[in-house]
Amino acid sequence: MTEHTGLLNVVDVEATCWDGPVPAGAAHEIIEIGLTVVDLGAGARIAKHRILVRPERSAVSEFCTELTGLTQDEVDGGVPFAEACRILAADHDAGARPWASWGDYDRKQFTAQCATTGTAYPFGARHTNAKLVFTEAHGLRRRPGMAQALEIAGLPLEGRHHRGEDDAWNIAALVLRLRERGAWRVTSDGVR
């Protein structure tokens, strides 16, 4: 199925992470949700959003801060995960609008965290793994990271890599490039 018109949410999350094993009692938890709205009909990125999420079972490690730039103090000012999911559904039409992420990590992290916390999954069934579509469209043997894909596509990396709001913005640029090539499509029905 090819999607040529309408709005698309491009989502990228950052989660707590460590340089080594997960500490006892901790878990990978979403700490930032970046969301860029793409108007596929107009071929434009039309909005950039950021939701900071306060982790409940883990802390932001020094490694995580080095990678993402996010600090514990910063995410302490965020909203609880359930509220972030409510915001996605209410303010960004996440349940009805198709969405995309770079790879399947973001979808799986939401699925797992919603199950663990008893939170309603905020997204609808139409999800696209943009990394898969990009890999196929370019005839690559290996699926590239987002930064490498930008190089392949001849696009600049805008903002800070591993910052959810900036990564979503850059992934949206890749989606638009795929759309220009006639390669943009939904890759799954979002079955969780």
UniProtKB/TrEMBL annotation:
CDD domains: ERI-1_3'hExo_like. Gene3D superfamilies: Ribonuclease H-like superfamily/Ribonuclease H. InterPro entries: 3-5_Exoribonuclease, ERI-1_3'hExo-like, Ribonucl_H, RNaseH-like_sf, RNaseH_sf. This is Inhibitor of KinA sporulation pathway (Predicted exonuclease). GO terms for molecular function: 3'-5'-RNA exonuclease activity; nucleic acid binding. Keywords: Exonuclease, Hydrolase, Nuclease. Residues 7-184 form the Exonuclease domain.
